[in-house]
Each structure stands twice: as structure tokens, then as C-alpha cells.
Amino acid sequence: MRVLEVKGLRAGYGQMEIVSNVTFDVGDREVVAVVGPNGSGKSTLLKAVFGLCRVFSGAVLFKGEDVTRLPPHKRSRLGMAYLPQTGNVFESLTVRENLMLAAHDLDEEEVRKRLEGVLSLFPELGGLMRRKVRTLSGGERQIVALSMSLLRNPSLVMLDEPTAALAPRLVKQALKRVVELRDEAGVSIVLVEQNALSALEVSDKALLMVSGTVKFWGGARELLEDRELAKTYLGL
Amino acid sequence: MLDLLVGALVYSNLLALMAVGLSLALITCRVSNFAHGDFAMVGVYVAYTLSVVAGLTPYAWIPAAFAFGGLVSLLAYLLVFEPLRERTDLVTLMVVSMALDMVLRYSLHVYADLMQQWLRVYTRLFMFDDFLVEAAGSRLPGVLPASTAVVAALLASLYVLLYKTRVGVAMRAAIENPGLAEALGVSVRRVFALSWFLSGALAATAGVFLPFRIMVSPDTGWSMLLPTFAAVTVGGIGSLGGSVLGAYLIGFSETVLAYQLAQVGISTAYRPLLTFAAIIVTLLVYPRGLSGLWSGKGWSLRRRS
Amino acid sequence: MVATSEVLAFVVSLGTLYSIYVILSSSMELVYGELGLPDFAKAAFFAVGAFAAGALSVRLGAALAGIAWEGEFKLRSYYYATLVSAKVAENPLMGLVIFVVPLLVAVPCAVLLGVLASYPALRLREDYLAITLIAFSEIVRVVARNYEPLVGGTFGAGVVDVFAWLRSPWRELAMMLTSALFAFGAWLLLYRLSRSPFGRVLRAVRDDEVAAAAYGVDVARVRAWAMALGSGMAAVAGVLYAFYIGSVNPDDFTVSRTFLVVLMVTVGGRGNPKSPPLGAAVYLALDRALLFAKRFLPVPFDVNYVAYAALGVLLILFVMKKPEGLAPERPLLTVDAEATEGVTSRT
Question: Which of A198, B3, C164, C325 is the most buried (most CB within 10 A)?
């Protein structure tokens, strides 16, 4: 069974359709990169999959279950995680409180167990626990945000431009780390990225979006090798 | 002089409860809630009715007023402000709260008419009988220790709730970024509902103390409203700690100023001018208010905007 | 049976009140509906007009008629109002002067205050601005309520009957026609402005202040102009109101008054110049209907309270179910659509 299946999705805001007829799917422990020019509807697609914007038609299936009309917090409880590009941590709360919040519906024993797992992935978190997030750097915030998602034991993590706040030299390293999650935490990943080359290098599959529609759907390597598409839309 | 101090302290205590409640509405749904004074009056009439029907001092009915005021406020949230959240502009929200003020205030008037015929008591311009306590060789009205104790207990509980419990973390998180909290599986609706319950409950509790000091009617809520706004504004909009501080600042300066006015032979009816001026001056000169001075540290909740 | 004269009196009185509310809600539509500035000090600008009539009509009349003043204003203004009205009955010209002078005083005052009140809008988020203006409005009321030489404080002030030279049904009719004339003028001004380039500028500032500034609009100036105009209109309504009621009481100018006007504009349809006459009609119809209900429903409480609560419910329902109001704002094409198409096809 596929973790995520998106079928003929049309979505947007108000009357405006931004994403038209998008179909793709994500398998178990698969990394899917969503790439394309600015304003092509990549972020809106993620929002639509998570239930944060209006869906006109089409369906979103999560682990075989139709979640198209479910509110976001229920999708989250089913094991779907979404990390927005900005505002993905609570600045006025401490790191510990942020993590507590992400694990708010679990019992103490379970929280402790998962926290250990997250700390082994991100050992640097240990020293930041009592700090207010407001005082952290961009990279540290991303780690807190990722840890929050992972605490919820998701089967699918959707990341909206996780490298946007990072210095260019850190991008490759950060993406590599994201992909390591697949192996260590056993999750599937949907990655929206501006740095198409770096993203495609670490992904299994690729979805190329242009003006709200799918221009390419297939293996990440195939897209990299398709000189025509890569040059026209990704500047590679 | 002692009278002046007692008056200022009791008045400030009430303002503190009112201001914290008003702030809760502001930071959750961004409503400058003009119906907040009516929640206080709901508390007054609950305590009054129960103490006439079932006896006992109105102090004994504070829990009932707390619960009922909270319930009315909760209903306002669920029926009106939750459906409108993120759907309309700030001024429209405010206008809606003014409409709600009309609904509640005049419903209370109707209730006052009915209660008068039902229980044969004055339901407008009435006061509660207070007890006296001996302290330091003078007699003090009971409302001073009573209100101080209740305010201290409620504010301490609120602090513990917000900072030491899971629900509190969820509340603070939902206030800062409702979308993200929702994405993490928090039901923002439920958390905000709790905030609104507390908002009305605190106001209703403040209301119970009011008739121990002044004569009240259903319209009294309105005259409490602008001083409450002044406390919130001076304290720094969105900061609960600031609201408490603002309440004592406004409460004391208003009382002292009224006393000074009387000394130089000017009518104390000008007293409200101080609060109105405080609102205008704070917003125009230093809109972040007192909490802007310690910005972000301590007991300060703010919505990202 | 209800006598014909009673019906006539009812209609004429209603017409006057309607006209006054059309002026007020037109000024609210201009500032709040078109420009998006929450002018919640409307009651104060309305009061400026009423206070001018309250403070001046009797004093001026007494001076013109050569009546020597004795005693405190707050205690004697009603008495002298009757005396002066009797003089006006013989001298229509005096009535005209007593009517015009308060207008000439009130309008510039209100315009000045309006321009002043437009400046906080540059610094404040719109809801804080609304609270600031409400505080300002309450300051005006509290001062008038306590400073008795102005309009008698809580005693209020008597106002001269400027149409005393006419006999009874004609007198009220003259009042109505005068108010209707002003109302029509105010509404026409709003309507023409709304359809003019200035109207487009107002809505541009309302929808996006920064973008409007980027296209060269002087936002502060536009706000000052609109507030000046809106406040002047409200002051005219205030003068008419004072002469219509025949007295002035500071507590008549509370925030509730402002709220009623906001209600009219919201129900009518914010952003559409048709909203003032529509909203005022809805409000008065509801208000009068409940007044009739009072006569026939023997309930153990005052029906007026129910009327106010019902108005509150009405507004909440409108915002929730029909936020665009009865007459929704229409996007306006002042430039001919074909002309623009010609331009685009050429490029």
C-alpha cells in the first residue's frame, strides 16, 4: 500500500485555482522531491495535502484512507506531518515546551522513549532544552521543528523548503541529514525545494510542477538526465 | 486617607481581573471585546439572585458567578467569535462585540425587570452588605481582604495553568501560532474555548465585588469597560503580566487623581477623563505599553502578527 | 380610530429623523465604508453640531430679541427658549439667523477636529484607532456633561423653535423638508464622490495603504480630507437634530449612537453609497415596529430593551450570514471597458 496517494487534485484559495489536476504517490520510505520555478504551486500543493487550503476536486489518500475532508489536526493524529517554511516553531516557548507540545497527546513513558530517539538523531538538541526558541539560530530552529514532527512518530513528513533559512554552504549537508531520517526514523518524505539539484540528488522520485500542473513525474535521476526539462524549468 | 487607599486597592483588584480577561480575548481571537463589561454584570446578577433566593453572603456565590460568567463568555466564543475567527477584519470583530454588548446588556435589563417582580427587591442601583474586619486599630471593609485574596489566588492559578501544565503550553502555543498548533494535532478551538471561559469567569468574579463598593445596574459594565481597556493598553496589549500591572497603575492613579480634584474643588465627575486620556496617550506615544519595556521576558504572551 | 393628523405627524416626525440618520450614515459610509477608517468618534462630531445649537440658539436669540438674561444657564435655558421662540413667531428672519449661526460655528469646529482625529490613523492598527476615537468621543461627552455653562450639563439645554412663525402641521413639515434637503445634499455628495476618481483613491487606501502610497497617493492628506468632510456632515446632522428635538442632552451622544450608525452602514452594505438610505430605513423600520409592538404586547418588562437586544442580534446575523450587506459593493469601471481593451490590444 502507498503511504500517500494524490489523485487529480485541484486546489487553491477562495475562487482561485492554483494547483490543477495533480496526481502522484509516495511509497514506504520513499523520498519525493517537488521542484519547479517560483510560483508554480509547490507550497500550495503541500498545504492542500495537509488540509490547509481549499480543495475543489480530487482526493488525498493517506495509508489507503480518504482524508480529503479531514481537518489538519486529525491528519496529524493519523501520522502525517507538515513543516511550513516559516513559523514552524513557537518562538515564545522553550525548546522543551515545543517538544512537549508536539507530544501533547502521548503518555509520559512514550514521550521519554521517543525523545531519546530524537536526541540520538540530533544530539545537539540536548544542550538547547531550556532555551527560548526566539534565541536560536535558523539552523537550530529547523532542527527543533524537525524533532517536533518526528516526536509524533509520523509515517510521512512533508517539508516546505527546509533549507530556505540556511547559508548556501549548509544546504547539501542539511538535505543529506533530512534523507538520513528515512533510514533512521523509517519515514517517507515529501520535500519541496528551491535548490533543485541538491534535492534531486538525494531523492528517489521527482515531481516537476509548472504553473500549477505536473510537467514531469518519475524517477529523480530521469529528471536530472532529461536535459530539455532540467534546463528549461530548473536552470540546470 | 485610609479610605482612599482601600478604595484604590479594591478598584485595582477588580481592574486586574477584568484586564486579564480582556487580554485573553484579545490574544486568542484578536477581539477588542466591548461585551467584556457585561460578563462582569452577569456575575453581579448571578450572585445577587442566589443570595436573595438562597440566603448567604454574595461572597459565597463567587464560584457560581465564576462558572456562569465563564459559560456566557464560552457561548459568545462558540456561537460568534469562533465562526468569525480568521474570517473578518479587526474592526468588524470589534463592531460585532459591540453588538454582543447590546444583546447582553439589554438582556440583563429585561432580567432585572423580571427579577424585581419575581423577588420583590431592587434590581437597579443596589449594593451588597459587607462585613467589617478589625486590622491595625481600624475597621476595614471585608471586600478589601476578600478581593485581594481572590485576585491573588486566581492569578496564581492562571500562572500555574499557563506555565506548568500541558494545557497551558498548548494555550500559549495556539495563541502564538494557531496554524502550527493545529498542524501538531492541538485542537485550537478547544484551547481557545478554555481561554474564553476563563475570560468571562474572571470578569464575572470581578463583578461580584463591585456592588460592595458602588451602586450597580446593568449599565455599570460599560463604565468598567474603558478603564479596563486603559489598563490593558497601558500595560501593553497582549501581555497578561502587563495587564495586571496596568490595572494597578490605572486604579491607583484614577483614585488619587479624583481625590486631588476634590481637594481643589473640581467635580470628581471628571475622573473618567484620566483613563480616556491614558488610552490615547499610550497608544499615540508608546503603543507597546509597559510590557514593551521588558519585551518578551517574563509573563508575556503575544500573538505573531 | 387613529386620526389623520396623528398619522401625518408620525410620518413627518419619522421623515425628519430618517433624514438626520441618512446624513450621519452617509458620513460614516464615506469615512468607514469607502476609506476604511473606523471613525468611532462619530457621536462626538454629531454632538458638536447639537452642542452648537444648544449653546448658541437661546443666547443668540435672547441677544437679538433684547431679552435680558437672569440666572444660571442650566436652570433657565428652557424658559428663555420659549421666550425667544415667541419672538421668532413674529420674526421669521430671526429664526433663520438662529438656525444658520450654529451651523456656521459647528461645521468648521467639526472639520478641524476631524482633521485632527485623522492623524492617529497614520500610526495605529485600525482596531486601536477605533478605541482611541471612542475614548476621544467619551471625553467630549464627559466634559459636556460636567461643564454646565456649555449645554447645561445633565440638565441639558433648551433650543429655540426656529420655525415658530409657522402653524402646527406646517412647522413640523418645514423642519422635515429642511432636513430632507440637507440629507439629499449629503447623500448626493457621497454618491458623486464615490463614483469620482477621489472615490477610487479612497478605496485604494482602504484596500492597501502601502500600494496606494506607491502609486503616488498622499495617504495622510486623503484621510484628512475625508475626515473633514465626514465630520462636517455629522455636525450638520447634529444641528438639525437639536432643532428637531427642541433640546440637547450630552448623554444622548454615547458610543451607542455611533454603533447605531455603524449598524446602518453595515446592514446597508459597506462600500456601496446606497447603504446609508437603505440601512437607515431598515433601522428605523425595526425601531418603530418594536415601538408598535410595545403598545399591543403586555409583557412584564420594557419592550425597548428587547428592541436594543434585537438590533444587536441583527448586526451579528448580518456579519455572519451576509457580510456584504443588502447592497453589496460593486467593482466600478469608470474607464470604458472597450477603451481599455483597445489599449491592451495595441500593445
Answer: C325
Query: What per-residue confidence (pLDDT) applies to C70?
Result: 87
**pLDDT number for residue B286:** 85
Q: For testing the chain A interface, which of B27, B164, B180 should be mutated: the one with the most A CBs within 10 Å?
A: B180
Chain B residues touching residue A52 (CB < 8 angstroms)? 179, 183
Return the ∠ at Cα B140 (arms to B134 and B142), rounded to 5°.
95
Verify whether the Cβ–Cβ distance C319 to B95 is below 8 Å: yes
Kindly provide the ipTM of the predicted complex, given to two decimals. 0.92
- By the 8 A CB rule, do A66 and A59 touch? yes
Inter-chain contact B181–A101, Cβ cutoff 8 Å?
yes
pLDDT, mean of residues B237-254: 93
Domains of chain A: 1-79+196-236 (3.40.50.300)
Mean pLDDT for C314-330 is: 92
Mean pLDDT (chain C) is 91
**Helix residue ranges per DSSP H, B30-139:** 36-54, 62-76, 82-84, 90-119
B290 closest CA partner among B241, B225, B224: B241
If 0-12 CB within 10 Å is exposed, 13-18 middle and 19+ buried, where does residue B18 land?
buried
Residue C124 · residue C48 · CB < 8 Å: no
Chain B residue numbers with beta carbons less than 8 Å from the beta carbon of A77 are 185
Looking at per-residue pLDDT, the higher value among A203 and A233 belongs to A203
> What gap in Å lies between CA C14 and CA C50, rounded to an integer?
19
Would you call B179 and A90 a contact, using CB atoms and an 8 Å cutoff? Answer: no
Q: What is the pLDDT of residue C342?
A: 47
**pLDDT confidence of C287, banded at 50, 70, 90?**
confident
What is the DSSP-derived secondary structure letter of residue A94?
B
User: Could you tell me which of C325, C324, C296, C294 has the C-alpha nearest to residue C310?
Assistant: C294
